Structures are given as C-alpha cells and as structure tokens.
Amino acid sequence: MTLTTGRAAMSYSVEAWDPSYGTTFATGEEDALSGSKAELDPEIEIPASEWRAVPPRKEQSHPPTVLFVDGVRRIDSRIWIRATEPDEDAALGLCASYASGVVVCQHHERGNSARIGASQVRRGLFTTAVEARDIAAPAGNYQAHITDADPAMPLPVLLSAELQQHLAKLEISVAVAARDQLEPSQQDEDLLVIDGPLRGRQHLPRTIGYIKTHHSRYLPDELNQLVGRLEPGHRTPVFSMGTNWERYSWYLRLPFREGAPWAGIVRVECSADLTAEDAVKLAYLSQSVLVRYASSEIKDPRAPQNLYPIAGLERELRRRLGNPQILHRSLRSGRAG
Q: What is the mean pLDDT of residues 208-215?
C-alpha cells in the first residue's frame, strides 16, 4: 500500500500475525521494567515509630457522586513503514484502538444509580517514521502520531508508552466532560477515582488514583509488614513518595476471603499539591468509597480489587473498540493519506 504526495511517499505492510502474539522479531520488551527508588516520608500522618493500622471513621460521610474513570487499549495490528528510498530501513508502527469512559455513581433519597457519563473511542498509528500518514481503513481511520526515537528504550516499548500517554490524555478529557455534565450543586462534592496511577492527572481536583497491581515495594521492611496485617477496611497511615514525580499514598485492604498475605490490598494516591491534612481526609474518604464498590469473587476473578463500576466499564469500552479481526483485515485494504 503506497501513497505519494508532495512529501515523501509512504508505503506500509501489515504483519499477518495476530498482534496478541507479539511481533515476529525479538524486541527486548521484557527488559523495560525497572525497580523503583522512591524517596519516602512516612511521617505525613503519624510518626514512623507509631505506625499502626488506621480504621475507617464511623461518622465518615459518602460523597453524593463518585466518578470512576478507566481506559482500555488494544493493538489492532503491527505494520512496517518504508519510504521510497531503497536504502531506508522499514520502521515499526503500532495501529491501536483505545477508549476511555466514566461511570457516574450517584446516591440520593430515591436510591442509587450508575450510568456511563462520557466516553470516547479513538484509533491511532504510533511510529517513529517521519513518513507516516493517517491510514483510512474501511473499518476506521488511524491518525498518525510520530514520536522521536530513543536509543535507550526498545522501540516497541517506546511506542507502547506513547500510546499510553494518549490514553491518559483521553481519560482527562472524558473525566472533565463527565464532571461538566453534573448539576452545579454536585460539582464540588464529587470524588473522581482513576483506575491506575495518578501521574499526569494529579491536577484534577478531588481525585484519587487506584492501583490494584503491585510491581514494587515502596515502604521499608519494618513499615511494609503492616500492610499484610491490615484488616478489611483498614489502611496504613498516609506517606509521601517521589520518583520522577511526587504524590501522597496509602495502602488499603478491601473485604476479602482468606488468601495470600496481600490479598485485597490496593494502593491509593493523591496529588502532592494538597496539604497533608487534605490528603488524610481523602484517605479516610477512600475507605468509605472503595470498600463499598469492592467486587465479589463469585462474579469477578480479579475480586475484590476490580471494583464493580470499573469492571463493567472495561467490558463496555472493549465492546466499543470494535471487532479486532475485522479491524486487522481492514488495515490490509486501507490507504495512507
């Protein structure tokens, strides 16, 4: 498939492999993860020598509106882009579909309700090839996003990170749109829960990041032992942490059946721009809100961490991404433009 314009021509070919099986060459993606070296201050709420489990407040109020934000992404195809010059190497491109949405949960005198307040689906081509152009495929258009190569990062990892950045921006967009749709009286009393780290979204007011998968140990051993001993609904004291960005954080245990030492443990974070007092208030609020929406293992294999609103939103967003087989075949007959 080739397009010739006033600029350099672009041609691309689609890998026949199903993208869920990876690419046909070694990428070094497994080397992309690295350990965390976060700087910690465990004495935000209480002195480190007095660290103990913090129970929920009995008088803690529940916000009338809780918004859950999540995003999904899928690689529809890997393509190879080549300029017309014969000595040019082919460049890898990722054709991806991604979507974000918000579930609005409201509590009022007439009962509880939940609805999808805003959602968007986008498709993009992510590559380092300067010749890249948008691809008009029969099943959907893929907007070209060109990023600079980084010799220190494997190309598939770099492109995946670029896709993730665009998804994070989309999550901000739908979150703001959902909040704008609320009644004026509700707009200053809501809580926004983002599924995943808060990075890049920490400027959003009344917002917490919800991390249900643990890749690193942030606390020193003597404090980390408290996490595994938490009872359901209890949390650790608030601490601050900083790597290449700063935030407040705490661990919380959701209701769970007997299991591994960290069963039902999630990590919650909020913006470092808040005062320590406001961060502690959000920590207590998270105990009230997140426990309420914890899932059951009868309905979700990722229970209790996969909260009911997030699980339902993920299913709906994946449906809205479209059929992956159709999109893959569509790219093979698409045109660059």
A: 92
